[in-house]
Specification:
The chain is mainly alpha-helical. Helix content is 75%, strand content 3%. The protein is built from ten helices and three strands; from the N terminus they run αααααβαααααββ. A three-stranded antiparallel sheet has the order 1-2-3, with no helix packed on it. A hairpin with a 6-residue loop joins strand 2 and strand 3. The longest helix has 31 residues. The chain is elongated and about 70 Å long. The two termini are 31 Å apart. It comes from Cochleicola gelatinilyticus. One of its GO terms (molecular function) is high-affinity sulfate:proton symporter activity.
Length: 262
């Protein structure tokens, strides 16, 4: 698991070079715009709702002593809760709606890395969008199911340190899951993709750790998070597929230029 997490993180090295080499930036224009707008909306929402939620939380403090301090802490906690849920919704929204743009990116990376023509499942923009929505709605529900109990436990002193780490890892896993599926959708059906990511959850977590960390960088992180994370996920997912012999290739004879099954 730990080794695979580092593999997922290491895959980010060379992503800028690969994007420039293959001229992929043009595919990222719309997703980057979506990412920026949604990120700003979540930030403004957290700013606006932090105080009302904080006041609601502060009502559980029944004593006068320390009430001001607890109210201040509650306001910060309220903003953090909005941000936590906002990030969950954010990443699944941009991943779902960016699917028609990210799938071609993954396919071009696959063609470049393998130097071969691979036999794929037949997909189009509509099916890619539906697949993205379906995967991300499923992941959103699973992530909320795990995150809500952890958030409740975070009210317990000391234990909140552990729950914060676990929440971050859960978010990282599902972020990496979505990035990997841009490649997996060409090779596997819905259920098979879920099983594949579960077998390689360390790589998904590693990819998602950098994804989540980039979101902490104002503006720039939100803009660049998809190009870099999708490129990294594509290269590492292709390596995993090849290791499991799931790349059904058709090699090209250099002389006759005819396809040779392999």
């Amino acid at each position: 698991m730990i080794q695979n997490i580092f593999k997922g993180i290491k895959a980010y090295s060379g992503t800028f070079k690969l994007i420039n080499q293959l001229g992929l930036w043009k595919y990222f224009g719309v997703p980057m715009f979506i990412s920026l707008v949604v990120g700003l909306l979540i930030g403004l929402t957290a700013w606006g709702l932090g105080d009302p939620i904080g006041r609601f939380i502060s009502k559980i403090w029944l004593w006068e002593w320390g009430a001001t301090t607890f109210k201040s802490i509650s306001t910060i906690l309220g903003s953090l809760i909005v941000v936590a849920f906002g990030l969950i919704v954010y990443k699944h929204m941009i991943m779902a709606f960016s699917a028609p743009f990210m799938s071609p990116v993954s396919e071009k990376i696959e063609a470049h890395i393998s130097g071969e023509i691979h036999s794929h499942r037949n997909t189009n923009n509509a099916s890619q969008l539906w697949r993205g929505v379906r995967i991300n709605v499923r992941n959103l529900c699973m992530e909320l199911l795990l995150t809500i109990p952890l958030l409740l436990l975070s009210f317990i002193p000391v234990l909140n340190i552990i729950t914060s780490i676990l929440i971050f890892l859960v978010q990282s896993y599902y972020a990496g899951f979505g990035n990997m599926d841009y490649t997996l959708e060409r090779h596997f059906k819905y259920a098979d993709s879920i099983r594949f990511v579960k077998r390689n959850k360390g790589v998904a977590i590693g990819n998602g750790i950098v994804f989540m960390a980039m979101l902490l960088v104002p503006i720039v992180g939100i803009i660049l998070v998809l190009p870099l994370s999708v490129t990294a996920a594509s290269t590492e997912t292709l390596a995993l597929l090849e290791a499991e012999n799931n790349l059904h290739t058709k090699r090209i004879d250099p002389i006759t230029e005819e396809k040779i099954s392999g």
